[in-house]
Amino acid sequence: MKLNAIKKCCMNTGQFLVLHTRSGCWLSNGRACWPTDGMEVREAHIRTLFDIDAKKADDLTIREVEQSDEHLSIEMDPLEERLNNIGYIWDRGVLYAVLTDKQGRARIINTAWLKPAEGNRKELRFVLRKRGRGGELVAACGDLLVSAIVVAEEAGRAAQLMEKQRELTAVELAGQETEE
């Protein structure tokens, strides 16, 4: 667990959420979550654990939530669909990974939410994790266990990013003009 990376992610969204499940404890920023590797964390621990002074804490949402959702599991389910990382999109200072399923449909995730994941981000494998009411999450897996669970970008935002990518790839390069 990389505390500095988790702190940065949570400060960016203004939220520190402590999620308790039957299988363990997770820290979240509302867009992604990371397992605490067996460490029991409580709301009262957040300010000390992340060295947050009282003034900064006033501007943050810090809360503890009981979660019954089974999608927060560090174990991979063999039935989860593997996603292929086909590339990256850079937009307004944010790097996004474009992940596709076997039908070719893309999910786009903010790679900043992967920084707390153990190991090298390039070595992460991604799987699609279904949750209730038709929702989907992307689980990033290191060696054998899930090290981050990320919410994909909303469909409208993902479409904007993909359209920007299409526009960029359609631009003609200087010096590549064809002779007539």
Task: Describe what you observe in this structure.
20% of the residues lie in helices and 34% in strands. The chain is an alpha+beta fold. Strands 4-1-2-3-10-9-8-5-6-7 form a 10-stranded mixed beta sheet. The longest helix is centred in the last third of the chain and has 16 residues, at 155-170. It is globular. The N and C termini lie far apart (60 Å).
Compact description:
This protein is of the alpha+beta class and 180 residues long. The protein has helices spanning 3-13, 46-49, 54-58, 155-170, and strands at 15-21, 24-28, 32-35, 61-66, 81-91, 94-100, 106-110, 125-130, 136-141, 146-150.
Helix and strand topology:
Elements: H1 3-13, E1 15-21, E2 24-28, E3 32-35, H2 46-49, H3 54-58, E4 61-66, E5 81-91, E6 94-100, E7 106-110, E8 125-130, E9 136-141, E10 146-150, H4 155-170
Parallel strand pairs: 1-4
Antiparallel strand pairs: 1-2, 2-3, 3-10, 5-6, 5-8, 6-7, 8-9, 9-10
Question: What features would you highlight for this structure?
Answer:
4 helices, single chain, 10 strands, 34% strand, 180 residues, alpha+beta, ten-stranded mixed β-sheet
